[in-house]
Amino acid sequence: MSKWVYMFGGGRTEGRAGMKDLLGGKGANLAEMAAIGLPVPPGFTITTDVCTFYYANGRTYPAGLEDAIEAGVAHIASVMGASFGDRKQPLLLSVRSGARASMPGMMDTILNLGLNDDTVLGLIETSGDARFAWDSYRRFVQMYSDVVLGIGHHYFEELLEDLKADRGYILDTDLQAGDWKELLGSYKALVMKRSGAPFPDDPYDQLRGAIGAVFSSWMNQRAITYRRLHDIPEAWGTAVNVQAMVFGNMGSDCATGVAFTRDPSTGEDTFFGEYLVNAQGEDVVAGIRTPQHLTILGKQANQSDLPALEELMPDVFRQLDAIRRILEKHYRDMQDIEFTVQRGALWMLQTRTGKRTPAAALKIAVDLAREGLITREEAVMRVDPGQIDQLLHPMLDPRAIRDVLTTGLPASPGAASGKLVFTAADAEAWVRRGEKVILARVETSPEDIGGMHVAEGVLTSRGGMTSHAAVVARGMGRPCVAGAGAVRINVTDRVMTVLGREIREGDLLTLDGSTGQVIYGAVPMVRPDLGKDFSLLMEWADSIRRMGVRANAETPADARVARSFGAEGIGLCRTEHMFFEPGRIVHVRQMILARDEDGRRQALDLLRPYQRADFIEIFRIMHGLPVTIRLLDPPLHEFLPHTDADIQEVADSAGVDVRTVRQAIAQMAESNPMLGHRGCRLGITFPEIYAMQCQAIFEAAIEVPPKDAPSMVEVMIPLVATRRELELTKAIVDQAAKDVFARCGKTIPYKVGTMIELPRAALCAGDLADDAEFFSFGTNDLTQTALGISRDDAAHFMDAYHRHGVYAKDPFVSIDCEGVGELVKIATVRGRAAHPGLKVGVCGEHGGDPDSIDFFEGIGLDYVSCSPYRVPIARLAAARSACRRIGNGHKELADSTA
Ligand code: ADP
Ligand code: MG
Ligand code: MG
């Protein structure tokens, strides 16, 4: 026969914390607390199996449940020395729902169950307080009617207000026992009127009604929505906890409270909590009375005049403080607890893993490891990489008032304030004269990069999470709100309107890239201090992880940030970004518009010194570490001028007329540039471009003294599909090396490798590996080409795709393991089979995504490369994945903090 009911308390505890699947989180932890000898009011838990049975069998209960419940009630009654429905010593119960994961959508708790016109007299007797007894009774009728019978609170509140007005009372506490008793009469009449049946007087009817309400609340709309949002399976079901009532509202020696065993916002090892004297249940969080602080320190910190529990009930406080330590040692994590004091006796009503801020998560994990309560691996597993992400960016002061204009997509985390500008050129000009700016564009293009770089934050009115603005801003660590549809931008008049409000150029604006809020004015900022705990956790992560972590960086500033965040080299240096700088772009355009090779060479000769200088600086910054440089990749037309002024300038500098330039631009237009004249195709059609770049690279590498040189220069060819492409372009690199080495009379070691970003390259990786000395997966393009989805056009249908669950996650954020991931796996296996020891890494956006990193760890890649600001996230994520692989991930006793 199945066991449907588990007792706890009174020396007869049948469950443990490990039984959450069966007993729910609340039930399992009540059992655990009882089992380790903490004062828990006795009770029993009806299992989640009953919930499953209930729904599988047309909302009926299994045979034997009724008896088991009676046995449970008898257990409680014998421990409490009371009897359910008894007029002399009435037993009162609470009925509490409790799923595996904490679920706010579930049924509210019912307190004081078992009261009726008879038993209330017993309660008057045992408590010696008629007012308390009648108040408890009416609270019960109100709660039960609301939760079980569906008669809303407000009906009862109206009756209460009427009575108060009638008697000239102001506060609830003005009501006397007789008033409450009279009010109960009107409550019951109300129930009769609205439900067509009398309020259930029989305690067992009340209990059955409450239990049924818990089970049916599993399928109410609130719960269904909550489960969908939090990926909680419907099959889990909920448990029901039935427990003896303890009273925090029986007088001034009674209290009720909630607490965290450490400060949940800072992680500080201080007891943190609030309580109310002479109150019941959720009065503390309901905010009707000002709660008091547990500790004297807490009271002082909050400048409260009300006495702390430490002062008012020192014995109870000492006991509670001891329990705080016991629970932390036992659960090995910070706990969130509920307690009640009845006539000086302390009762524990709940414990669970406490939610905490990212800063607290970091501090608590490191402290617990230092205290020896958890291992370093566990500490690493306790901090979510997403929390580190939040810590790395400045945040808006949570206490500041925000004038929110609208909310767009939270495209790149962090917050920023500045004066509003509408063009990249303005951004650069304003910053040059010392202003801080927010750049607002309808959408951004590669031309805007300069402006984005100097701006504090970027706002776009169009585009998704993977739009140009979003990707580039994340790469730069620049806060970005993208796709704010309510924003209308008028560049000509330098003004934008948001839902009828006009914001002009120069007005102060704040962006919160973590929430997507666009805020008028400057909101004060706080930068979380990363401090020693952060470096310590990172050190632990580094000692655990197997995969290397490099950064995608092309500017000296980015390279420096990357190194300071612990990058072990550059995995992707995009040379085209160096072309956009003012003073260079004109030569690039000259090169593109040149009529013949000679003309191109002339322009390239002007560009080479710039590239060489850039490489020298980056090599110095990354000294001792490997640097992978990708040769020119984007289609050339991206560099072409668009505005009349720019076209005129190019025409002048190239010595041709404006019409010729316009013709050239029209000629180069492509209808599908992502699959157009780009990548190694440029190297094959214009070998002199790659030759110039390689010459600059090798000259730079030779120029820096050995102690300032990178450990390895890796030249990477983009968009290769066939072996012949790699042969042709590799020959250019090798020839350039040979020429430079001969001219300088010096050689340096270098490698030539290829990106794998086309499905054909992945499938033919064995062939490519004969010529390639390393592989780097360009997972952005590989995703586009494998899925046949253009990132720039995905916004139109990705929403619908997400709603219908076509891809579990946005495949441009988190790698599509089955498809794109399979290509990565195949290429790695085939590449290494042909070329044992081949170094294989990832340099797409996925290199900084924890879920993707987990996949890459699983298939044994050598390293990931990500934007500088994601380096710590990748280090932590790689360590966590390594932990999981070797089975060090500790199974938590309590709920996960997720
Ligand atoms: P939630 O999941 O919303 O926290 P709970 O079941 O924990 O719901 O209960 C709600 C409130 O009722 C809490 O403040 C709790 O302390 C109080 N409560 C629950 N059971 C009892 C009981 N047996 N005696 C006294 N108060 C109780
Ligand atoms: Mg609770
Ligand atoms: Mg690419």
TrEMBL record:
Residues that coordinate or bind substrate: 574, 630, 757, 778-781
Cofactor: Mg(2+)
Annotated ranges, domain Pyruvate phosphate dikinase AMP/ATP-binding: 21-58, 65-299, 312-366
Keyword ATP-binding among record annotations: yes
Keywords: ATP-binding, Kinase, Magnesium, Metal-binding, Nucleotide-binding, Pyruvate, Transferase
Catalytic reactions of this protein: pyruvate + phosphate + ATP = phosphoenolpyruvate + AMP + diphosphate + H(+)
EC class (word): transferase
Gene Ontology molecular functions: ATP binding; kinase activity; metal ion binding; pyruvate, phosphate dikinase activity
Pfam families with a match to the protein in the record: PEP-utilizers, PEP-utilizers_C, PPDK_N
EC code(s) of this entry: 2.7.9.1
Domain PEP-utilising enzyme C-terminal stretches: 534-881
Alphabetized PANTHER family for the sequence: PHOSPHOENOLPYRUVATE DIKINASE-RELATED, PYRUVATE, PHOSPHATE DIKINASE 1, CHLOROPLASTIC
Family according to the record: Belongs to the PEP-utilizing enzyme family.
Protein name as annotated: Pyruvate, phosphate dikinase
Source species: Haematospirillum jordaniae
